[in-house]
Request: fold
Amino acid sequence: MLTLQKMIVHLLDGTYELFRHFYGVRRFKKTDPPFGAVAGVLSTVVQMIAEGATHIGVATDHIIESFRNELWPGYKTGAGVEPVLKAQFTPLEEALVAMGVTVWPMVELEADDALASAAHLANLDDRVEKVCIWTPDKDLAQCVVDDRVVQVDRRSGVIRNAEGVRTKFGVAPQFIPDYLALVGDSADGFPGISGCGPKTAAQLINRYGPLEDFSPEALNEENRALALLFKDLATLRSDAPLFDDVEELRWQGAMAEFAAVAEKIDSPRLLTRVRQLEKRLINL
Reply:
């Protein structure tokens, strides 16, 4: 009888990582290296592989705006993103491809939608033991499933399963869009419902369930319509056809052009580390 080989799928928020490394580099350097954040993200991915990650997918916001900007005029845009940071989005995607890493550059949808879609697809595969979504973004908590699909916050080192989501927000993962609709999400640019804080939102959701089931006493007609719009904004799309087989996410080494990429981003050490990891693949 054949035994299925279990695997752990790692899904990385490339946009968040690019921002994190950009401002991390800035703390230590007087000038912004043109590809400093790119090198930082690649180093993070290499470190994950060195620590045993075999299947990795990285989602990026190739176009920062999405369909949600048409639904709500105040939704986040690329306005205010520093040009030197914005200029590193496409080089990051190209560098990851050269390193042999699966990348999803999103245009109509957002990187978070890609993470949600990839998590959904991986969760359907019996060969997958666990799916780790590497991002602290609140909206990704809606993708958590029991102990199987978890959210990893690199800053705090916290790994949140379904019980962890409930502990943090007061609601189960499937109600995170309802929760965010009520309390708002300043990072995404929608305010929520006036007077509805985290505790009130959790209490209402635990009493009534989803927003659609709220009584008129809990939410008047005007606020109900607004809350449902915000819920639509907060609901991640999980049906993007990102891959047919989870094995497409397996890292099998860099492409030939990666040496030129490492030189371009001024990171020869990165090339050395990748070559070492490729030798480890041969010996497996």
User: Anything to note?
Assistant: The longest strand covers residues 7-13. Residues 7-168+237-278 form a domain with the Rossmann fold fold (CATH 3.40.50.1010). The chain has twelve helices and six strands. Strands lie at 7-13, 55-61, 102-106, 128-134, 149-153, 158-160.
